[in-house]
Amino acid sequence: MSALALAARNVWRNGRRSLSTFLTMTVGVCALLLLGAYVQTVDQGLQTNFVRHGGHLEIQHRDFLLYGDGNPAAYGLADYQRIIDAVRRDPQLRAQVLVITPSLKLGGIAGNASANVSRTVFGRGTLVDDQNRMRAWNAYGLPIKPGNLALQGSPPNAAVIGTGVARVLRLCGPLAVPDCPPPVEAGAAGGAAQPAGLAALSELSQPAKRAALDSAAPVIQLLTAGETGAPNVADLNVVKAQSQGVKELDDGWIELHLARAQRLVYGEAAPRATSLVVQLDTTANLAAARERIAAILARDFKGEQLTVLGFDTINPSYGQILGMFGALFGFVALLFSCVVLFSVANSVNMAVAERTVEIGTLRAIGMQRGAIAAVFVWEALLLGLACAVAGLLLALGIAYAVNHAGMSWLPPGTVEPQVISVGLWGQYKIIANAVLTLLIVSLLAAWWPARRAGRLPIVDSLRHV
Question: Cβ contacts of residue 69 below 8 Å, gap of 6+?
Answer without folding.
Answer: 105, 107, 122
